[in-house]
Amino acid sequence: MEILETGAPQPPSHTAGEPAPSRPPGRRTALRIIGGTVAAVAIGVASFGSISSAAAGQDIHSSLTLIAPAAAGGGWDTVAREMQQAQRANGLAANVQVVNMPGAGGTIALGNMSRLEGRANTMLVGGTGLLAATIQYDSAATLDDVTPLAVLFEEYDVIVVPADSPYETLDDLVGAWRENPGAVPWTGGGSFDQLVVTDLALAAGIDPVDTTYISSDGGGEAVAALLNGTVQAAAGGYPDNIDQIESGRLRALALVAEEPVAGIDIPTAREQGYDVTLANWRMLAAPAGITPDETGELTELIEDTLATPEWVSAVDRYHWTEQVITGAALAPFLDEEHARITRLYEEMGQ
């Protein structure tokens, strides 16, 4: 897959674990991370010191830290702050703080989290993007270095084109793309979106390596690239695109979900003959080395949080689809997703 960069070099919008990957990054990876790595590491070290001090000897319900492995305002930060609000409003934890620890797709926060072994009053927000970053950057820290607690929900991508695009249907778009893959440039707002484009290419019988993908720094830049004609199609989170779709500036061709979603009047890619179902799920993890009782207590806290009116309202407001996975079902799910995402990166030629 030919990948072109737009804008100044930035760290990936979804973050991961060690300040430096265990293998030298390629030119593309270096371009993405070099501009922000030093600052991200400095923030991470400072935050880690405060968390480590605060976490020692604290009860889960008296003091809780939620780590968002990205800057304020992004998807992981939103999850952390909505959890914080729900827990405070319902007295589930007396003192809940959110700490932003951006850098390298989330792996800086993951690496720091692996140094908080046994600290049961700290949870890390993560998900598909964090798992993908550990694979993409071959990071030293992986999800094996923390204690996964729960998958919370799924957020789905939507395939969009400009409203004046000649492509009226997904078949129209795929037909032109298949005929000349490099002549139909794509974009997306993050690494997850590139995985969706790759998965759609495979489902359509197109070699992802032949596709032109122009990397955008977030959903806003991706929409701008569509509207100014830089690209012809994009994959992006439904919440990030709904306003543009409803205003008539973008045309939605497909929702990337296993089955139709209530309240979203967009046919799925699967319904149109393309078996693409990769979901942007979000999860919570605790440090390694916590006891089974502490794992159970944290899982119960999460379940209680998900039942609050504040959290239910957030799920509706952000168009999330509740998909809670805990306990024995969690490890097999993560293993399957790891294998799936690894295969997609291999198909990209990375």
UniProtKB/TrEMBL annotation:
Name recorded for this polypeptide: Putative tricarboxylic transport membrane protein
Recorded superkingdom: Bacteria
SUPFAM superfamilies referenced in this protein's UniProt entry, alphabetically: Periplasmic binding protein-like II (SSF53850)
Pfam families in alphabetical order: TctC
Membrane spanning stretches: none
CDD domains cross-referenced by the UniProt entry: PBP2_Bug_TTT
Coiled coil: none
Region (Disordered): 1-27
Family per record: Belongs to the UPF0065 (bug) family.
Family annotation (InterPro entries): BUG (IPR005064), Bug_dom1 (IPR042100), TAT_signal (IPR006311)
